[in-house]
């Protein structure tokens, strides 16, 4: 029994050892497996992180690709839109002017400031011609990327001051001004007008009024324009009944005008024939003429190749009233006034002649065309029929003329040369006749309702043409009344032209010195 116990213990020890060995072996195997699994997990985690990173990269690349695609689509759409605009712009509607490349105002607004347009709003129900004008002007603005508004800035007496204010303190806006001719001299002397001479417009073309271009040209530079033909001004009306009663076939006056034979001599012969003391009481009953003596003096000067002021070879304005042609015209017209004119009665107003003419005791009437040819004119209620011719040409003159006075469009002298050129071109387009509605006889209007065809289609039509239009440069110095009228033409009937000129010269020279100092 005692011997068996050690054996048993030995067996137990062996068994324990065996189990320990087995346990250690199994533990080693398990650790190995754990290590292998850990390595796999680590590897999988790394792979997962890499996969996540790849996924994020893919998402970023996808987003970038989507944004690039969207941007490309946007740019393509914009390019297509620009191409469509360019194609549309190049598809110029029939009758519209060709497009000048390189003119783009960048969406800026351009103001054309006159002195009469109180509202630039378009009509809700325009007629066909008005609608065509709206379409044409919309095309101009779209083609040259600008907005244009014609609206008043001041009235007849103040819009020139508005221009001067802008010239002194420009605010960056784009502007043109349409001024009454009476007020161009002051701003011009201040160098407030930019010159229109540039490569984008041709100032010798029929679009521009030649008389205004000539008037506004100093030293080879043109500082203002108007468009088309002039509105005729002073003309010579005649009373058909009075002439017929004097034994005159009034159609012969039109014939003389047409043949170039309507001269001072022919006119004076008719005045002699018309003027009569019908009842032999020593008082004239039928006068040769009446009207505005100042209008007669002025047009007589230009009809004899004279003028009151002119530019010398250096572009300086000088007195020209002392020329032989001017003094001859003033002397002759003064004699006509004193001999054949029905003059202002002692109790008469300054415009006495308007009513006297309509009473029908004068053969001729010296006045403005608007007095008879315009709708609702002063002569609308005249009982006698009337005709109209140009003032006769003097011995030193070359053709019939009238002294015009058109509005002048100017560009403030605050822009660079490129901007001035672009503004001049856009105004040329804006002021053009609506394509398809350039009616050559549109000016006739209702004129044929008031008088005979020859007065309208021969006289009025002729006086619209540039070769029959003269400009008086007195407007550089001030109004006709202030400069030429006061103490000169208003006093001519009681003095001689030479005496009045001598007295007036110092005043005029002071005005000239101020103007020429610009």
Can you offer a commentary on this structure?
It is a single chain. With 518 residues, the protein is of the alpha/beta class. 46% of the residues lie in helices and 11% in strands. It has helices at 4-90, 128-143, 159-168, 185-189, 210-215, 240-245, 251-259, 264-274, 293-303, 324-340, 352-359, 417-430, 453-463, 480-485, 497-516, and strands at 108-114, 146-152, 174-179, 217-218, 221-222, 234-239, 287-291, 309-311, 317-319, 362-368, 386-389, 402-403, 408-410, 469-470.
In short, what is this structure?
With 518 residues, the chain is an alpha/beta fold. The protein is 46% helix and 11% strand.
Which secondary structure elements does this structure contain, and how are they paired or packed?
Blueprint: H1 4-90, E1 108-114, H2 128-143, E2 146-152, H3 159-168, E3 174-179, H4 185-189, H5 210-215, E4 217-218, E5 221-222, E6 234-239, H6 240-245, H7 251-259, H8 264-274, E7 287-291, H9 293-303, E8 309-311, E9 317-319, H10 324-340, H11 352-359, E10 362-368, E11 386-389, E12 402-403, E13 408-410, H12 417-430, H13 453-463, E14 469-470, H14 480-485, H15 497-516
Parallel strand pairs: 1-2, 1-3, 7-10, 12-14
Antiparallel strand pairs: 3-13, 4-5, 6-10, 6-11, 8-9
């Amino acid at each position: 029994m005692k011997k068996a116990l050690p054996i048993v213990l030995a067996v137990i020890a062996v068994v324990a050892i065996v189990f320990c060995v087995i346990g250690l072996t199994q533990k080693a195997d398990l650790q190995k497996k754990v290590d292998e699994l850990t390595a796999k997990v680590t590897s999988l985690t790394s792979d997962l992180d890499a996969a996540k990173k790849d996924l994020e990269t893919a998402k970023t690349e996808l987003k970038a690709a989507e944004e690039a695609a969207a941007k490309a689509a946007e740019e393509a759409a914009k390019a297509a839109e620009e191409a469509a605009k360019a194609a549309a712009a190049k598809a110029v509607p029939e009758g519209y002017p060709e497009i000048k490349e390189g003119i783009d105002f960048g969406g800026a607004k351009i103001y054309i400031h006159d002195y009469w347009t109180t509202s630039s709003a378009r009509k809700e129900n325009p007629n066909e011609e008005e609608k065509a004008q709206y379409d044409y002007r919309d095309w101009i603005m779209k083609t040259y990327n600008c907005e244009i508004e014609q609206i008043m800035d001041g009235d007849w007496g103040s819009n020139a001051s508005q221009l001067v204010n802008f010239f002194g303190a420009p605010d960056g806006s784009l502007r043109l001004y349409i001024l009454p001719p009476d007020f161009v001299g002051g701003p011009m002397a201040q160098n407030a007008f930019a010159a229109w001479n540039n490569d984008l417009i041709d100032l010798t073309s029929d679009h521009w009024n030649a008389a205004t271009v000539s008037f506004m040209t100093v030293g080879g530079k043109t500082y203002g324009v108007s468009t088309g033909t002039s509105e005729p001004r002073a003309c010579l009306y005649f009373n058909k009944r009075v002439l017929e009663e004097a034994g005159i076939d009034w159609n012969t006056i039109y014939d003389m005008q047409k043949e170039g034979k309507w001269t001072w001599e022919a006119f004076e012969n008719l005045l002699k024939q018309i003027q009569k003391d019908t009842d032999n009481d020593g008082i004239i009953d039928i006068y040769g003429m009446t009207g505005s003596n100042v209008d007669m003096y002025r047009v007589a000067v230009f009809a004899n190749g004279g003028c009151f002021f002119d530019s010398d070879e250096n572009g300086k304005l000088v007195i020209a009233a002392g020329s032989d042609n001017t003094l001859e015209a003033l002397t002759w017209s003064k004699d006509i006034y004193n001999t054949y004119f029905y003059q202002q009665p002692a109790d008469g107003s300054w415009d006495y002649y308007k009513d006297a003419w309509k009473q029908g005791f004068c053969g001729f009437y010296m006045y403005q065309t608007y007095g008879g040819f315009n709708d609702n004119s002063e002569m609308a209620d005249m009982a006698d029929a009337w005709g109209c011719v140009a003032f006769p040409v003097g011995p030193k003159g070359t053709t019939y003329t009238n002294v015009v006075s058109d509005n002048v469009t100017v560009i403030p002298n605050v822009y660079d040369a490129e901007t001035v050129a672009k503004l001049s071109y856009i105004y040329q387009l804006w002021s053009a006749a609506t394509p398809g509605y350039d009616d050559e006889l549109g000016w006739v209007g209702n004129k044929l309702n008031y008088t005979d065809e020859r007065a309208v289609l021969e006289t009025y039509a002729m006086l619209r043409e540039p070769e029959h239009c003269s400009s008086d440069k007195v407007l550089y110095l001030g109004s006709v009344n202030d400069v030429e009228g006061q103490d000169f033409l208003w006093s001519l009937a009681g003095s001689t032209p030479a005496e009045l000129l001598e007295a007036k010269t110092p005043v005029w020279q002071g005005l000239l010195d101020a103007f020429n100092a610009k």
